[in-house]
Structures are given as C-alpha cells and as structure tokens.
Batch of 2 targets.
Target 1
Amino acid sequence: MILKQSVAISALEERPSALENGLISGRKHALDGLRTVAVIGVFLFHTVTELVPGGSIGVDVFFTLSGFVITLLIMKEYRATGRLRLGVFYAKRLARLWPALLAVCAVVVLGGLIFPLSAWGGQEANALPAAGYVMNLSNFGLFGSSTGGNALSPTWTLAVEEQFYLVWPVVLLIMLRFWKVRTVAWLSAVLAAGFLVSRLHLVLDGASLARLYNGPDTRADQLLLGCAMALVFASVTPGSRVHAALQAGARWAGPVAGLALAAALFVLQEPNTPGAWFDVFWTGGPTVLALLAGVVIGSLVLRPAGLASRFLSHPWLANPGRDLSYAAYLWHLPVYLLEIPLVPSLWLRVPLAAALTVLMAWLSFRFVERPIRRWASKRQEPAVARSIPKPRELKPAATQ
C-alpha cells in the first residue's frame, strides 16, 4: 500500500495542468520583437513623418497586442486557480507601468522649471493627467482646452489601456462564470463590433478627430479583438483539428497581413480633415488595422518556427521589446521635442534622438523599473501563493 500511495502522489504531481496548453504557455519572444518594431514605427512617425506617415499604426498594434497578452495572463491564472485576484492583478500593473511613467513626468517637469523656454517648459499641468492615466480625456478637451501635442501627450495610449483594464478583468470573470471560453471569445468579438458601431455614430454626429483618436470607447474594439483572439487560443487544444486549421491559415494570412501593415507604414496617411475618406477611415480603419495586427500576432504564436517568428525572436529585437520598449515609448517624444531648437539638422537630430531615447529607456529600466518590480514581486508573492489551491492530501493507507 505504501508503494501504491507513492505512485498516486507521483501521478498527482505529474498530471498536466490546464496551463500546459502550448498556445498560451511560455513567453512569446516574437511578440517582444513585434513591440520593438511598433515602437520604431511610432518614433519615425513623430520624427520623420513625411517618410513614414503611417507609423502611428504602431499604436494600433500596441492596443491589439496588449489585449492579447493581458488576457492570456488572466487565463493562465484563472485556469491554475479557478479565479483571478484582482488586487494582485492591479498591483502588478501599477508596479510594471507607474514607476517609469512617474519618472518621465518628474524629469520633464523639473527640466521645464529649470529651462522654462525649452520644449519641457510649462508641463506641470500636463503631468497630472499623464500620471493619473487620463491624458486621453485631456487630449480631446474633457477638462477644458485640448492638450494634444505636448511632450507628455503620448501617455494617452497608457490611459486608454488602463481605463480598459479597470473594467475588462471583471467583465471577463463574469462571462467565464456563465459560459465556456470559446463562447466568451465570440462574445468579446461581438462587444468589439458594438464599439465599432458606436464609433460610426460618433463619426456621423460630427465628432472631432481628437475625440475619435483618443476616446477610451473608440479604441476599445482594438483591445477587445486582441482579447478575443487570446480566448480563442486558450480554448484550442494543441494538435487538434482546429489547431491544425489555424496553423494552415496562419501560413498564408500572416505574411499577407504583415506585408499590408509594412506597406501602410509608408503609404497610409490618417485623414485629419472632414470628408468622405475621413468618415470611412475613422469608422472602420482602427478595426481593420487591429484585425491585421491580430492576424500577425496569431501567426507568430501559431508558427513559432516560421521565418517571421524566428526573426522577431532574435535577441536584438526581442530583448529591447521586453525590457526597453515601454520606457522608449515614454521618452522618445520628450527627447525629440527638446532637441528641435538645439539640433537644426534633421538628419543629425533623428539618430541623436534615437540614441538618447535608448539611453533614457535603459536608465529607466535599470534604475527605476526593474528594482521596483522586484520589490513589488516579493511583496506580492505571499498573496499569489495564497491564491493557489493546495494539492489534495492523500490519507495514509491502512496497514495490511
């Protein structure tokens, strides 16, 4: 009986958990590389707009990728524990994002106070909505005059994401309480379609570009499409017919979507004046771009040995995407705006801005983000441990 008990314990320990779904387990290094490419696109859009007029689609990729990755993280914990500790979830989000954001706000404000005539001058009022994750609302004038175009205005994307994640985990947990994962994936897609219709109504009502560009509702469909795709992957069994069909589709759809996004970087110019193209683009454009981004993301996950996945997984792309892309996004515009009056030559200013952005991102990661994240992880470990159910103990067998 002792031998039987030992075998039973061993079987419990070796039984594969739901987390071992190959589609949602492990870090996807190709997605880190995709972050690097997206940041480069946004940087070029802000520095050499005439050459890369569509670089802003890096933001569309960010939103879709964010919805995908965050939903995968939620599903991993949900499948492991049967629930999600919302307090720990939000604490991790703050520990991951807030320190770097507060650091850039503090440096820009301090620099503006010391050099009030520089591009950082007068940023005190903008630092508040930036640090409070409401810059998107400030950009379209909810708190008064529009603040778009300032050194901290790119933080509007962080605001959109954090406002979404205040709601999405709760909505997702409620849906999972009543429906299967695959059904929830379809419902998430339906929600995305609902926000597309909502954006159509805003366009027809004559909403401003700032409202359409910065709204938490006008970008929700992009995040939700990423969420829906993550839920689909969480419901697919590796090796199943559905998995094989998705892989077959990704073989051709991934390259087509990737080429379409690459072409858009150089030819797509988002309309900013009212007209037919303005109405068409700002109704369906964000959704189409999110769908293309979703196909690329899905292809990278489904075909990890594919050429694109191997290229984006290279350490030169994946490591900066993992460690530096967030801070680089925060720092690139403040650095560039500060340089404009100091470095007249565009072709010298842009590479210098790129080098300084990478330097500031590394300093942020090395001395702000990583230390605070490690400290927060140690504080959160007890809470996470309490959320994991203990394996059922076996009663000692009677001696025979």
Note: Residues 35-383 form one domain.
Target 2
Amino acid sequence: MRAAVIEGGKFVVRDIADPEPAHDELLIRVHGCGVCGSDLKTYPLLPDGTIMGHEFAGEVVAAGSTVAEHWPEGTAVASMPVIGCGTCRHCIAGDPARCPEPQALGLGVRAGGFAEYVTVAASGTVTLDPSLDIRSGALVEPLAVGLHAMNRGGARAGDRLLVVGAGPVGLSVVIRARARGITDITICDPVNQRRQAGLDLGATNALDPTTDNIGTGFDLVIECVGKAGMVAACLDAVSPSGRIVIAGVCMEPDTFMPLGGVVKDVTMSFVSYYTVDEFGFAAAALADGSLDIGGFVSGYATLDDLQDVVDGLSHPSDQHKIIITPG
C-alpha cells in the first residue's frame, strides 16, 4: 500500500506492506483522513517510519476471525484512533483512551490513517449512514472531541459560552453548542477568516484577542488553542462558579495564578479524546442532519499533497479542515 511516512521530520510517500488485522480487528480501506492541529505540533517530533493520521473513515475490506460475522466487507465505518486492553475498568466503561496501556493510532505507536489501509479495533468502530460521503466520516473524530469538551464542561442551554480558538476543534465546539441549544456563543481568534467561519457555523459574536476586550462573566470557557498563557486568559474570562475546559494541546510549560480560580470558585477540566458512546453519538449526529457543518471542510488533498498541506496549515490561514484522500 501507499502511505505517508515520516522521514527526517517530513512526510514522504512510500510503498509498504499491507497491514493485517488481528482476530478482533478490522482492516479499513481509508477514504478520508483529516489533518488535525495536534498533527501539526507533533509530527516533527515523531520517529522515522511513523504513519500519522487519527481522523479517518473508510470501508471494511477484511475482518479478524472473532469479529468477521458482524463486519461484512464493504461496510462504511469510522474508528476511534486509540485501542485499549479491553479488560481494565476504563475500557469496560467505554473509555479506552484512559486505559493504562493505550495504543494510539497515528502517534508513533500504531500506524494511522495517512495510508491506503489501517487496522483498527472492532470495539471502537461505528458504522456510517449509507447516505454519507464516506470521506465526510473523517469528521466524526473532531466532532467527538467537541462533544467530549462540551460534556465535561456541563454545557447547557442558557450558558454564556466563550470558545478560545477558531481552528477545527473550536469550530466543532461551536457546532455542538448550537446543536445543544446554546444561543450566546462568542468565538475568539486573531485570524479574521477563522472568526468568520465561527460566525457562519453558529457563533453569535466574534472577537479579535489582539484588539478587542474579551470581557468576563462567561459561564463556560473552552480553550482550543494550546499555547502558553491561555489558562490564565480563561481564568480572567470565566464568571464566578464558572467552568473551564482545556482542550488545546500545549507543548510547552504554562503558568497561571491559582488564586484567580480559587477566588472565583472555578471548575477546570483538561480533556482529550472521547468515550465510545460519544464517538457513536457524533457519527449518528453527522448522519441525521442535526449538525450544521456547511463550510467546516475547506477541501480535499492526496497523500502526495500532505506535506504541502501541513506546511500551509502551520501558519495562520483561512483553511479549516483539510481531508486527505489516500485512495
């Protein structure tokens, strides 16, 4: 198969052996794999030979012996990019990302979806509605991220919500917030095109942090940037007894004054991934029309374009979600 392999800190397309599923796994032909902001931050740090890509969807082409009966060839699916042991309390509760021995796909442990084929756990796979373009199934993963952040923040109709960062994760939070009935949504981002995307997807107000006063009194603040200084900014913006969710992947030390959170009696959560139920819920919502995702996908590209896509997304731009089509 063809795959985009990291060599010397860059993506290079190579022909490698096709993977084979274990007894409880599926072999998926990848139709679409989204480029994530965390990919941009981590790919230069990963070892040669890594196949990245954790937002993918495709069709079943083979299944292991213990799951083949339930997964016929040709089934359109999206899969969670993390595999747990299956027996610990977290896996039993449907949260394999919290397993003591998780196997992450696309981060140097197991191969991800920037390839023609990928092996996945059947237990973390959901079917896609036949009416969907299979490539759009790659959106299940980022939409599940937004859903998990909303759930951990206890988001509810009537909240005054601030979303810090209008990249794909921030936009997925906006989409989920509108679906939940929240009508006061402020998006904050220094890039004008991203602010406009937030408004187009349902935000009611957009602010430029370099020129605008963000203000305070937000019931829920969800941080989707992952840069130093963001926790302190969230503490400034949140209301007394408010909630903060940190979803951004910050790769450097950060400092903030705990007293601010103590005085305000704030609840703060740090989140990643999602549960099996949340992943399935995101897939169902994508199919039933309850989510307005028009404009969320900026475009499609091939494996051969991946390095150029990554280079372009590493700088402020008007691009949102780019989906790689390996086939």
Note: The first strand starts at residue 2 and ends at 7.
